Amino acid sequence: MIFFVFSYNRGPHLKNCVESIECCAPGQPVIVFDDASDDPETVAVLASIGERHEVVVREDKDSTDQHGALYTNMQNAIDRVCDDDVICFLQDDTQMVRRLDDDDVVFIKEYFDRYPDSGFLAPVFQRKIARPATLQRFVYDPERGVYIQSVKNGRRVAGVYYSDISITTTRRLKDKGWQFLMGEFENEQQAARLFEEMGYLYAPFVIWLPTPPAYRNKKKSLAFSIAEKINRAGLYPFSIMTDARVRALKSRPTKELPIAEHYLSTTVDGVPRPWIFHPLRRSRLLRRLDKLEAVVRSAKSWFTPKG
Fold first, then answer.
1. Which of 205, 207, 208, 210 lies closest to 273, judged by CA?
2. pLDDT digits (tens, 9 = 90+) for 272-285
3. What is the SS3 assignment for 96?
4. How far is CA 240 from CA 97, 264, 266, in A?
5. Cα angle vertex 33, ends 32, 37, to 5°?
6. Residue 293 has pLDDT above 80, yes or no
7. Which end of the chain is flanked by fewer CB atoms within 10 Å, N or C?
Protein backbone atom coordinates (compact mmCIF):
# COMPACT_ATOMS: atom_id res chain seq x y z
CA MET A 1 0.00 0.00 0.00
CA ILE A 2 1.25 3.47 -0.88
CA PHE A 3 0.49 6.25 1.60
CA PHE A 4 -0.01 9.74 0.22
CA VAL A 5 0.05 12.52 2.80
CA PHE A 6 -1.10 16.02 1.87
CA SER A 7 0.18 18.93 3.91
CA TYR A 8 0.26 22.68 4.37
CA ASN A 9 1.98 24.64 7.15
CA ARG A 10 1.37 22.12 9.94
CA GLY A 11 4.88 20.79 10.43
CA PRO A 12 4.43 19.09 13.83
CA HIS A 13 1.22 17.43 12.65
CA LEU A 14 2.89 16.25 9.43
CA LYS A 15 5.80 14.81 11.41
CA ASN A 16 3.38 12.96 13.68
CA CYS A 17 1.40 11.60 10.71
CA VAL A 18 4.44 10.27 8.87
CA GLU A 19 5.93 8.77 12.04
CA SER A 20 2.63 6.99 12.74
CA ILE A 21 2.79 5.39 9.27
CA GLU A 22 6.40 4.35 9.86
CA CYS A 23 5.34 2.76 13.15
CA CYS A 24 2.10 1.10 12.01
CA ALA A 25 2.96 0.21 8.39
CA PRO A 26 6.75 -0.14 8.40
CA GLY A 27 8.40 -0.47 5.00
CA GLN A 28 5.40 0.86 3.06
CA PRO A 29 6.05 3.73 0.62
CA VAL A 30 5.17 7.23 1.84
CA ILE A 31 4.90 10.20 -0.53
CA VAL A 32 4.22 13.66 0.86
CA PHE A 33 2.60 16.33 -1.31
CA ASP A 34 3.06 19.78 0.18
CA ASP A 35 1.04 22.80 -0.93
CA ALA A 36 4.01 25.24 -0.96
CA SER A 37 4.28 25.65 2.82
CA ASP A 38 6.14 28.79 3.90
CA ASP A 39 6.23 28.20 7.66
CA PRO A 40 9.92 27.66 8.62
CA GLU A 41 9.11 24.82 11.04
CA THR A 42 7.13 23.00 8.34
CA VAL A 43 9.88 23.54 5.77
CA ALA A 44 12.37 21.98 8.20
CA VAL A 45 10.04 19.01 8.82
CA LEU A 46 9.66 18.50 5.06
CA ALA A 47 13.44 18.49 4.67
CA SER A 48 13.77 15.87 7.41
CA ILE A 49 11.05 13.66 5.94
CA GLY A 50 12.67 14.05 2.52
CA GLU A 51 15.70 12.16 3.83
CA ARG A 52 13.51 9.04 4.22
CA HIS A 53 10.60 9.46 1.81
CA GLU A 54 9.66 11.22 -1.39
CA VAL A 55 8.45 14.79 -0.88
CA VAL A 56 6.75 16.74 -3.67
CA VAL A 57 6.45 20.48 -3.05
CA ARG A 58 4.05 22.45 -5.20
CA GLU A 59 5.86 25.26 -6.97
CA ASP A 60 2.78 27.40 -7.72
CA LYS A 61 1.97 29.19 -4.47
CA ASP A 62 -1.27 30.75 -5.73
CA SER A 63 -4.62 29.06 -5.22
CA THR A 64 -8.22 30.24 -5.35
CA ASP A 65 -9.76 27.14 -3.78
CA GLN A 66 -10.55 26.98 -0.07
CA HIS A 67 -8.70 23.65 0.09
CA GLY A 68 -5.59 25.07 -1.55
CA ALA A 69 -4.15 22.67 -4.11
CA LEU A 70 -5.36 19.54 -2.29
CA TYR A 71 -7.31 18.06 -5.19
CA THR A 72 -4.68 19.05 -7.76
CA ASN A 73 -2.13 17.21 -5.63
CA MET A 74 -4.43 14.19 -5.23
CA GLN A 75 -4.75 13.97 -9.00
CA ASN A 76 -0.97 14.28 -9.39
CA ALA A 77 -0.59 11.49 -6.85
CA ILE A 78 -2.63 8.92 -8.76
CA ASP A 79 -1.04 9.96 -12.04
CA ARG A 80 2.43 9.03 -10.83
CA VAL A 81 1.87 5.45 -9.60
CA CYS A 82 1.17 2.10 -11.21
CA ASP A 83 -2.32 1.04 -12.20
CA ASP A 84 -2.47 -1.88 -9.76
CA ASP A 85 -1.35 0.00 -6.64
CA VAL A 86 -3.52 0.15 -3.53
CA ILE A 87 -3.25 3.68 -2.13
CA CYS A 88 -4.29 5.42 1.06
CA PHE A 89 -4.95 9.16 1.12
CA LEU A 90 -4.13 10.87 4.43
CA GLN A 91 -3.67 14.48 5.50
CA ASP A 92 -1.24 16.04 7.93
CA ASP A 93 -3.89 16.32 10.69
CA THR A 94 -4.59 12.57 10.62
CA GLN A 95 -2.77 9.68 12.22
CA MET A 96 -2.56 5.91 12.07
CA VAL A 97 -3.36 4.43 15.48
CA ARG A 98 -2.73 0.72 15.10
CA ARG A 99 -0.44 -1.58 13.17
CA LEU A 100 -1.72 -2.96 9.88
CA ASP A 101 -1.58 -6.75 9.94
CA ASP A 102 -1.76 -9.28 7.13
CA ASP A 103 -5.51 -9.75 7.59
CA ASP A 104 -6.08 -6.02 7.03
CA VAL A 105 -4.05 -5.97 3.83
CA VAL A 106 -5.68 -9.12 2.45
CA PHE A 107 -9.18 -7.80 3.21
CA ILE A 108 -8.53 -4.49 1.46
CA LYS A 109 -7.07 -6.08 -1.67
CA GLU A 110 -9.79 -8.73 -1.89
CA TYR A 111 -12.50 -6.12 -1.30
CA PHE A 112 -11.68 -4.25 -4.48
CA ASP A 113 -11.32 -7.54 -6.38
CA ARG A 114 -14.73 -8.81 -5.22
CA TYR A 115 -16.63 -5.56 -5.70
CA PRO A 116 -15.75 -3.93 -9.03
CA ASP A 117 -18.23 -1.10 -8.43
CA SER A 118 -16.58 -0.05 -5.18
CA GLY A 119 -14.47 3.07 -5.53
CA PHE A 120 -13.37 3.92 -2.01
CA LEU A 121 -12.94 2.47 1.48
CA ALA A 122 -12.90 4.74 4.53
CA PRO A 123 -10.29 3.69 7.16
CA VAL A 124 -11.49 6.14 9.83
CA PHE A 125 -13.02 5.82 13.28
CA GLN A 126 -16.40 7.38 13.86
CA ARG A 127 -16.53 10.49 16.03
CA LYS A 128 -18.65 10.67 19.15
CA ILE A 129 -19.35 14.35 18.55
CA ALA A 130 -21.43 13.42 15.50
CA ARG A 131 -25.19 13.78 15.82
CA PRO A 132 -26.96 10.55 16.91
CA ALA A 133 -28.99 10.64 13.69
CA THR A 134 -25.72 10.67 11.72
CA LEU A 135 -24.33 7.62 13.51
CA GLN A 136 -27.62 5.77 13.06
CA ARG A 137 -27.17 5.98 9.29
CA PHE A 138 -24.23 3.57 9.46
CA VAL A 139 -25.40 0.01 8.79
CA TYR A 140 -23.20 -3.08 8.73
CA ASP A 141 -23.30 -5.01 5.46
CA PRO A 142 -22.46 -8.62 6.37
CA GLU A 143 -21.78 -9.61 2.77
CA ARG A 144 -19.23 -6.87 2.16
CA GLY A 145 -17.92 -6.85 5.73
CA VAL A 146 -18.07 -3.05 6.02
CA TYR A 147 -20.40 -0.32 7.19
CA ILE A 148 -22.23 1.83 4.68
CA GLN A 149 -24.31 4.94 5.13
CA SER A 150 -27.98 4.23 4.58
CA VAL A 151 -29.57 7.43 3.28
CA LYS A 152 -33.25 7.69 2.39
CA ASN A 153 -35.41 10.13 0.46
CA GLY A 154 -32.57 11.26 -1.77
CA ARG A 155 -30.96 13.34 0.97
CA ARG A 156 -27.58 14.90 0.18
CA VAL A 157 -25.19 13.57 2.78
CA ALA A 158 -21.40 13.82 2.74
CA GLY A 159 -19.31 10.70 2.97
CA VAL A 160 -21.77 8.25 1.42
CA TYR A 161 -19.66 7.64 -1.69
CA TYR A 162 -16.42 9.57 -1.14
CA SER A 163 -14.03 10.90 1.48
CA ASP A 164 -10.74 12.80 1.20
CA ILE A 165 -9.36 10.29 3.75
CA SER A 166 -9.78 6.99 1.97
CA ILE A 167 -8.30 3.86 0.41
CA THR A 168 -8.65 3.07 -3.28
CA THR A 169 -6.74 1.58 -6.19
CA THR A 170 -5.29 3.51 -9.07
CA ARG A 171 -6.69 1.03 -11.59
CA ARG A 172 -10.22 1.43 -10.24
CA LEU A 173 -10.07 5.22 -10.55
CA LYS A 174 -8.43 5.23 -13.98
CA ASP A 175 -10.79 2.60 -15.40
CA LYS A 176 -13.72 4.84 -14.46
CA GLY A 177 -12.08 7.98 -15.88
CA TRP A 178 -11.89 9.57 -12.44
CA GLN A 179 -10.53 13.13 -12.25
CA PHE A 180 -10.43 14.90 -8.89
CA LEU A 181 -12.70 17.95 -8.83
CA MET A 182 -12.10 21.07 -6.73
CA GLY A 183 -14.29 20.24 -3.74
CA GLU A 184 -15.31 17.34 -1.51
CA PHE A 185 -18.99 17.77 -2.42
CA GLU A 186 -18.18 17.75 -6.14
CA ASN A 187 -16.13 14.57 -5.69
CA GLU A 188 -18.97 13.05 -3.68
CA GLN A 189 -21.33 13.66 -6.61
CA GLN A 190 -18.83 12.23 -9.08
CA ALA A 191 -18.36 9.11 -6.94
CA ALA A 192 -22.15 8.67 -6.70
CA ARG A 193 -22.30 8.51 -10.49
CA LEU A 194 -19.40 6.08 -10.86
CA PHE A 195 -19.41 3.83 -7.79
CA GLU A 196 -21.54 2.14 -5.16
CA GLU A 197 -21.60 3.38 -1.57
CA MET A 198 -18.24 3.73 0.14
CA GLY A 199 -17.44 1.06 2.69
CA TYR A 200 -16.28 2.01 6.19
CA LEU A 201 -13.84 -0.51 7.65
CA TYR A 202 -15.13 -2.65 10.51
CA ALA A 203 -11.72 -2.25 12.16
CA PRO A 204 -10.44 1.23 11.21
CA PHE A 205 -6.86 2.37 11.69
CA VAL A 206 -6.94 6.15 11.06
CA ILE A 207 -8.32 9.12 12.99
CA TRP A 208 -8.19 12.89 12.69
CA LEU A 209 -6.29 14.68 15.44
CA PRO A 210 -8.45 16.79 17.75
CA THR A 211 -8.41 20.61 17.53
CA PRO A 212 -5.68 21.09 14.90
CA PRO A 213 -4.84 24.51 13.42
CA ALA A 214 -6.99 25.05 10.33
CA TYR A 215 -6.90 27.12 7.17
CA ARG A 216 -9.43 28.29 4.62
CA ASN A 217 -7.93 29.01 1.18
CA LYS A 218 -4.49 28.69 2.84
CA LYS A 219 -5.36 31.66 5.10
CA LYS A 220 -6.31 31.93 8.75
CA SER A 221 -9.76 33.50 8.90
CA LEU A 222 -10.89 35.54 11.90
CA ALA A 223 -13.51 32.93 12.80
CA PHE A 224 -10.94 30.14 12.69
CA SER A 225 -8.43 32.17 14.72
CA ILE A 226 -10.97 32.84 17.47
CA ALA A 227 -12.13 29.22 17.51
CA GLU A 228 -8.57 27.94 17.79
CA LYS A 229 -7.93 30.11 20.84
CA ILE A 230 -11.15 28.96 22.48
CA ASN A 231 -10.45 25.29 21.73
CA ARG A 232 -6.71 25.54 22.53
CA ALA A 233 -5.71 24.31 19.08
CA GLY A 234 -2.44 22.42 19.02
CA LEU A 235 -0.84 19.03 18.52
CA TYR A 236 -2.62 16.27 20.44
CA PRO A 237 -1.38 12.92 19.10
CA PHE A 238 -3.01 9.59 19.84
CA SER A 239 -1.29 6.69 21.54
CA ILE A 240 -0.75 3.65 19.34
CA MET A 241 -3.35 1.06 20.32
CA THR A 242 -2.26 -1.80 22.53
CA ASP A 243 -2.77 -5.39 21.41
CA ALA A 244 -5.61 -5.70 23.91
CA ARG A 245 -7.43 -2.69 22.49
CA VAL A 246 -6.97 -3.95 18.94
CA ARG A 247 -8.45 -7.32 19.96
CA ALA A 248 -11.40 -5.54 21.56
CA LEU A 249 -11.90 -3.48 18.40
CA LYS A 250 -11.82 -6.55 16.15
CA SER A 251 -14.07 -8.72 18.33
CA ARG A 252 -16.90 -6.31 19.16
CA PRO A 253 -20.46 -6.89 17.89
CA THR A 254 -20.99 -5.43 14.44
CA LYS A 255 -23.91 -3.32 15.71
CA GLU A 256 -21.40 -1.32 17.78
CA LEU A 257 -19.76 1.35 15.64
CA PRO A 258 -16.01 1.94 16.10
CA ILE A 259 -16.28 5.19 18.05
CA ALA A 260 -12.90 6.87 18.53
CA GLU A 261 -13.47 7.76 22.19
CA HIS A 262 -14.19 4.10 23.02
CA TYR A 263 -10.84 2.77 21.84
CA LEU A 264 -8.31 5.61 21.62
CA SER A 265 -6.48 7.90 24.01
CA THR A 266 -4.34 10.97 23.45
CA THR A 267 -0.74 11.22 24.59
CA VAL A 268 -1.58 14.59 26.18
CA ASP A 269 -3.81 14.63 29.25
CA GLY A 270 -6.77 16.95 29.61
CA VAL A 271 -7.99 17.14 26.01
CA PRO A 272 -11.75 17.79 26.41
CA ARG A 273 -14.10 15.01 25.32
CA PRO A 274 -15.86 14.42 23.06
CA TRP A 275 -12.95 15.45 20.89
CA ILE A 276 -13.42 18.37 18.51
CA PHE A 277 -12.15 17.84 14.96
CA HIS A 278 -13.37 21.10 13.37
CA PRO A 279 -12.67 24.48 15.02
CA LEU A 280 -16.19 25.82 14.39
CA ARG A 281 -18.01 22.73 15.58
CA ARG A 282 -19.34 24.06 18.89
CA SER A 283 -20.06 27.69 18.05
CA ARG A 284 -23.00 28.73 15.91
CA LEU A 285 -21.89 32.37 16.20
CA LEU A 286 -18.45 31.61 14.77
CA ARG A 287 -19.97 29.58 11.95
CA ARG A 288 -22.06 32.61 11.03
CA LEU A 289 -18.96 34.82 11.18
CA ASP A 290 -17.14 32.39 8.92
CA LYS A 291 -19.97 32.53 6.37
CA LEU A 292 -19.94 36.33 6.52
CA GLU A 293 -16.19 36.38 5.91
CA ALA A 294 -16.67 34.07 2.93
CA VAL A 295 -19.26 36.45 1.45
CA VAL A 296 -16.92 39.42 1.95
CA ARG A 297 -14.01 37.59 0.33
CA SER A 298 -16.18 36.61 -2.59
CA ALA A 299 -17.39 40.20 -3.04
CA LYS A 300 -13.82 41.54 -2.94
CA SER A 301 -12.77 38.98 -5.53
CA TRP A 302 -15.71 39.93 -7.76
CA PHE A 303 -14.97 43.65 -7.71
CA THR A 304 -11.18 43.42 -7.85
CA PRO A 305 -9.96 44.35 -11.35
CA LYS A 306 -8.37 41.43 -13.18
CA GLY A 307 -4.95 41.78 -14.74
1. 210
2. 889 988 777 767 78
3. strand
4. 5, 8, 9
5. 110
6. no
7. C
